[in-house]
Design goal:
single chain; 721 residues; Hypothetical protein af1432; Beta Polymerase, domain 2; Ubiquitin-like (UB roll); five-stranded mixed sheet; four-stranded mixed sheet
């Protein structure tokens, strides 16, 4: 048989399969449109019609409308002929033509492209969502088809493709509630990213398959009998969780010191019933039969997830005394949970819109639209922060629901309501109680924002990640935009003052030009303007001074005075240029830490003492030949540093300061204080830190304490060299 003819027969069989499945839910005239699109693509010389058919078959599985399937078949039709677009429009109308154009704009995403190119293509895909949700669904189907045939991709490219899938496409499918597609993408990506772990879990599934099937069958039989006694009609199915879900569960068990071979909540039963009332009846029967585990019940029927997912989740001690997760939902909920937004297509003329679907889709579009001004990799980071992260649902005082990234604060909420409200925010009431602006909102919280009538605008401290005022990218961008709108001279002055303050409190001897270069700025004025408008977070200065390649040890957890062997080990990390195996120790007068510009002083019987280069004791050295060049080597242990906290005296001040230090897992070696005539006081602390970045983060947190005026490294005391 002629190969060309044989392939034509196979394609004919494929299109017949496609139209047969489409005919299960589409009217005959719509099926004819799908077949017409296939024939058009074939006649136009579609370069990869087999793959287009596979994508169309995936879309049929999600009950895509005829125009969406037609667009999937027509995307990538050669556009060299200028009459092609006109022909598509003439044959299929504006809806299909617009979909094809949108898909051709975003289908060029290539895992061979630089990150910036991929990010721009993804940005186009997401912004197309504001026009038509089908663009994203077709893009997901395209990616699923690629992942199913990933072995055709060159081995060196598979990892980046899998990473992009698990970081972007899987969360997107989950966000849209398309559970089946998300799970398949997740497992394929996981298999290519972590082949050994995938094999290990697959082997575990094979070894325990018979045991798990017996257990599921037993539990199903017992529960079915109980349902029959209660007169409840229900369908019960059981299955182990996906490979990637099992991997995450095993990782969690390992962190808790548990044996992963004892994980029985890797199994789950799904109970399907006719209506919502039966869901709660089934729950009552289950809890009457088996003891529920505390804290393991979630009611996603009364409180649906943002992707419209609804179900009751409970974990019980079931047969043989082993934990078992059970999900209870109606058949309609199950359909929506499997297909998500794809279960709500409403493109047929004259059909009533699903208001709940429109509300959720409108909210998702609104979140996406907030990112439209971002480009490059910043757009991807924004997606991960504001869209893909787990969501928290809170209420306005009028009872209107608002969706925010989990971990969001009242300030994030204020900016979500209105930009001006965020700028004028002075405080917040949560459930009727005054709460700090850094409070992390919980599901069901009622948030009431307090504001001034004429605000001066946001504070740059709100952008300091150590203080935790804002988490959403949307709020951060609005704050930065406000500062960017201020006068250039004002931003320059603000940035100059902030930089000088940070250099002073960290006691750094670097010039402004050196610091600007460290942050990638050749013009120091532009650098200070960037600080002034919030583009650069000056609190990152400490971390910038420690080379990334230098290995770091974990923070100390036990108190150790500076003179102990622990500190001697830290001093051993200093390298004396041109010499080896010399005894080194850190000078107690200036307590240098990694990031400081240092110099060595050769003593008569104590080796080389390491001082900061601007230490007053070094300035007094007469014999310059006793000074040697030194550098920070591999970071070891912790380093003592003295800091001074100036604050208004009040009850509980010292307790608050020591609590912040303790929460940062930093050891306090010594503490003292001095009172001042103006009612303020200075608390002197000697703490053990690992590097300059560690110190900078501590300063940020201490600066956020109520009443604290200034935090800096303490002045030098004359010490023995």
């Amino acid at each position: 048989m002629n190969i060309k003819y044989y392939r034509a027969i196979l394609k004919l069989m494929d299109i017949k399969d496609l139209t047969a499945k489409a005919g299960e839910y589409l009217p005959q005239e719509s099926v004819a449109r799908v077949e017409e699109a296939y024939q058009f693509a074939s006649d136009a010389g579609h370069p990869d019609l087999d793959r287009a058919l596979e994508v169309a078959m995936i879309l049929v599985g999600f009950r895509m409308d005829a125009n969406g399937i037609a667009a999937a078949l027509l995307q990538r039709v050669p556009s060299g002929d200028t009459d092609i677009t006109t022909s598509i429009q003439k044959s299929f109308g504006d809806d299909v033509t617009n979909l094809v154009n949108d898909m051709n704009k975003v289908s060029s995403i290539s895992w061979y492209s630089p990150d910036e190119v991929q990010a721009e293509n993804l940005r186009k895909m997401f912004l197309a969502l504001a026009e038509d949700i089908r663009v994203v669904i077709i893009s997901l189907a395209n990616r699923l088809e690629v992942m199913r045939t990933i072995k055709k991709v060159p081995p060196q490219e598979r990892k980046s493709l899998a990473e992009e899938t698990i970081e972007i496409y899987v969360p997107l499918a989950q966000r849209l509630g398309i559970g089946g597609m998300g799970s398949e993408l997740e497992d394929i990506a996981f298999r290519n990213l972590y082949p050994e772990a995938y094999k290990e879990i697959s082997k575990l599934l094979d070894v325990r398959k018979t045991e798990w099937e017996r257990y599921i069958a037993h539990a199903t039989r017992v529960l079915k009998e109980e349902f029959e006694k209660g007169g409840l009609k229900a369908e019960i199915t059981g299955r182990p969780k996906s490979v990637y879900s099992i991997y995450n569960k095993m990782e969690a068990y390992d962190k808790q010191g548990k044996d992963s071979t004892d994980i029985y909540d890797l199994l789950a039963l799904r109970v399907l019933v006719d209506n919502v009332s039966d869901c709660y009846s089934a729950l009552g029967i289950i809890h009457g039969l088996w003891h529920p585990l505390a804290g393991q019940f979630d009611d996603y029927i009364a409180n649906p997830k943002g992707n419209m997912y609804q179900s009751l989740h409970t974990t019980v001690i079931a047969v043989e005394g082993k934990p078992l997760e059970i999900q209870i939902r109606t058949y309609e909920m199950h359909r929506i949970n499997e297909y998500g937004i794809a279960a709500h297509w409403r493109y047929k003329e004259g059909e009533t819109k699903d208001l709940r679907f429109e509300e959720k889709l409108s909210l998702f579009r609104q979140v996406v639209s907030w990112q439209q001004d971002l480009t490059g990799t910043g757009f991807i980071e924004s997606l991960k922060t504001d869209i893909f992260r787990d969501q928290v649902y809170v209420f306005t005082p009028k009872g209107e629901i608002r969706e925010l990234p989990r971990g969001s604060t009242p300030l994030d909420f204020a900016y979500r309501i209105h930009t001006d409200l965020g700028h004028r925010c002075t405080g917040a009431k949560v459930n009727g109680k005054l709460m700090q602006l850094a409070y992390q909102l919980q599901d069901g919280d009622v948030v009431d924002i307090l504001s001034t009538k004429y605000g001066k605008g946001p504070s740059l401290d709100w952008l300091n990640p150590e203080l935790g005022y804002v988490k959403s990218n949307q709020a951060k961008e609005k704050i930065k935009h406000w500062f960017r709108q201020q006068e250039r001279a004002e931003n320059l002055d603000r940035g100059k003052n902030l930089l000088e303050k940070e250099l002073k409190r960290l006691s750094l001897g670097f010039s402004k030009d050196e610091i600007a270069e460290l942050f990638g700025y050749s013009d120091v004025n532009e650098f200070m303007i960037a600080i002034g408008c919030g583009e650069v977070n000056i609190h990152q200065l400490g971390a910038k001074l420690v080379p990334e390649e230098e290995p770091r040890t974990q923070n100390p957890t036990l108190a150790q005075p500076p003179s102990t062997p622990k500190q001697a080990e830290a001093a051993e990390g200093v390298q004396v240029l041109g010499a080896e195996d010399l005894l080194t120790n850190l000078a107690p007068c200036c307590t240098p830490i990694p990031g400081d510009d240092i110099v060595g002083y050769v003593t008569r019987n104590k080796g080389v003492t390491i001082h900061r280069r601007d230490c007053p004791n070094i300035a007094k050295v007469d014999n310059q030949q006793r000074l040697v060049e030194v550098s920070w080597g591999a970071l070891r242990g912790s380093y003592p540093v003295s800091i001074a906290v100036r604050a208004q005296d009040r009850v509980g001040l010292i307790k608050d300061i020591t609590s912040v230090v303790s929460e940062a897992k930093i050891n306090i070696v010594a503490i003292s204080n001095t009172d001042h005539e103006d009612g303020s006081m200075t608390i002197f602390l000697t703490v053990e830190i690992t590097d300059m970045g560690h110190l900078g983060r501590l300063f940020s947190k201490l600066g956020g304490i109520d009443g604290v005026v200034n935090v800096s490294r303490a002045g030098y005391s004359k010490g023995e060299r």
